[in-house]
Amino acid sequence: MKALLLSLLLVPALVLAQAPVIEISGANFRPLPLASPAPTLQEGGDKKAAGVFDTAFSYDLAASGIFQVLDRAGFTADAKEGMTAASINFSRWADVGAESLVKVSLAQDGGRLRGELRLFNVATGHEDLKVAKDAPANEPRQLAHALADALYRHFTREASPFLSRITYVRKAGANRDVYVADWDGMGAQALTKGGTHILPTLSPSGQVAYTSYRKNRPDIYVQSPGGEAKAVVTDGQMATGVAFSPDGKRIAYALAEGESAQIYVAAVDGSGAKAITDTPYGLNTSPTWSPDGKRIAFVSNRGGSPQVYVMGADGSGVKRLTFQGNYNQTPDWSPRGDLIAFTARDERNAFDLFTVNVETGKVTRLTQDQGNNEEPTFSPNGRLIMFSSSRNGGAHLWVMTAEGNNQLPLPMEKGNWLTPDWGIAPAAK
């Protein structure tokens, strides 16, 4: 399986003060060995808040796909070691294989929790990064995500997914409810309560669109967290599979009528709807926008079995993209533009995840022999994929790199969590 090349490059001396940059490309994978001891809590600080911070920060680093986070059980350095280079015995960190060392200090200041992060090059003892952030004292996870984002940006020069949001469905009995949460599934807020609400998707502004049976028929609603749901598509027998355009001004969705289902594009309020497919006895579903908003990928059975196709956002230039397998579905177009992730049923009747290169048609398998894996969705930077998996029983949300490496469950409570969608853009905090 293709993995990531993670090479440390030195930027010229006059640029970024010779800060190392992790370039994520190619086929050779070597994550950066990183030591991250527990945060230091200043006098008067809240130990519980520090624990919550540490759990969230550690998960961000582990799931990032670019770090090899070293096991703390093997650390030999003095637990009371300081935050400055002069107080650190770097040989102890080199002994455990660390190439970089990240230290965090937490302090409570009134109603704010303040965190200072320092990053050191273990070989040179040089301090490469010093950054301070703060958050409400009752939001230690928010501070953890902000500091993890600063570390990620330092190494990659791009935004992390740690400040973004996701939406998903929780299945409990006969009910299917829509939730919005932080990227790791924590801090969840329910948008619906009781009934059947499925296939949610996030807009760049934080609105959520989903199909709801609240009036005993499948219509599309748009809702802001804390706001009222507004019906925007009530035509046809079934309106489903809604997707926001990258600028948040349009929606694409599937509308079933009679023996067919066609892809429509409309304004975000449902006005000006126009069908962009026309196969009288065919099913066209699951639209997903290209990052420039000029093309739409979708699923169609016009060739005899469900396959992934691509067309212009006006319905022109339809091109079949997948030819392997006889049941391909739920495409999601990477924000980087190069890949489309999708679910396919294999020869064992199990569902697994694949990507297809939009230009070359090359298909790469990401999961195998671990239950059913479905509904892939890319992170806002295109580096990670979230999905629903039954590998441990029930349905749980997992995350992995876009190459299928470093597969980890989200740190959520047990339950049945379905159809995740990752926000197009990070939420403002």
Automatic annotation (TrEMBL):
**Subcellular localization, per the record?**
Periplasm
Q: Which domain of life is it from?
A: Bacteria
> In what residue span(s) does the TolB N-terminal domain sit?
21-126
User: A Pfam family for this UniProt protein?
Assistant: PD40
Ordered alphabetically, the record's keywords are: Periplasm, Signal
Signal sequence: where? 1-17
Q: Does the keyword Signal apply?
A: yes
Gene3D superfamilies xref list = TolB, C-terminal domain, TolB, N-terminal domain
The record's annotation in HAMAP family points to: TolB
- Give the family, as the similarity comment puts it: Belongs to the TolB family.
Protein name stated in the entry? Translocation protein TolB
What organism is the protein native to?
A: Corallococcus praedator
